[in-house]
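Standup notes
- DV: blocked on the single-chain target, sequence here:
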Amino acid sequence: MRGSVEESRHEAKARKEGSRYGSSGRLAVMAVALALVMPGCVATDRAPDLSMRPRLVWLNAFAVANPDFRVIHERQVKGEGESSEAVQMLVEPRWPSPSFSEQYARYQLEITRTSSGKFDTPRLYPWRMTEILRRFWREGSETDSEDAASLLKGLDGAAVRVSAVVELVQPMSEADVKKIWPYQIDVALLSPAGPGNPLSWDQSGYCSSRGFDTCKSDVKDSLMSEFQHWVSFLEADDEVALGAFGLSLGELQRRSQEGRYYGFILNAYPSRIRSIVGDEKIRSIQVADVSMAGL
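- DV (later): unblocked, structure below
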């Protein structure tokens, strides 16, 4: 599966880079670790290269604001389709697939900054997950875990994958979420739904596709840490770009400081999702789509 393949690549990269440093490198790592655990201390990174600013801000803002769609980061890895005034990207609905190499309906979209400084952003068409997310964590919203259990019953096999939105009863830390779901999470949902979708952060599958290194030891394997690092790089001058996607720097900073999951999106085997139906910490599980290889 792609998740395990990417994890293996990341682990191999970490081992390779770790071998480059001697005792001085280890001391530096220890110093950073102490800064992270000491109360009130925050480890800060050097700001990413300015040439990656559109990728860092615009592309990630699009992904954060649209958890119902998946950005395919292949163009960013290749360094294609990007300038100081435009970013091109491949996007598809976040439906399940046995392999991320399978290409369903992928669209090439573009984010551009006009001469007046305003932004032209892609128009996305809603689908089932969009409707689920618009009700996410809203008071009085329906719960469909029983419907999910009925739908998942009898669905099994290596070729079957399900995308589902999980809504938690109370906001939880990432560590507590992993006690409920120890497998890979496709998307972390980091706020209730506002006028649009809940804020989110997803798996990209690559180390540098988001404009900063997501394979570093202090962010690797943690969607929350990746999101918090991204927010730490944002500046007041980014407000116009963020606003083009319905985001605000203040809200992003608040959710980063809060550091809580309100839910998550899964791309998983039906049997694994069935195993958490009925968990008292889960308010609802709603199936967005089901796919089978070859169909």
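- Follow-up: The radius of gyration is 19 Å.
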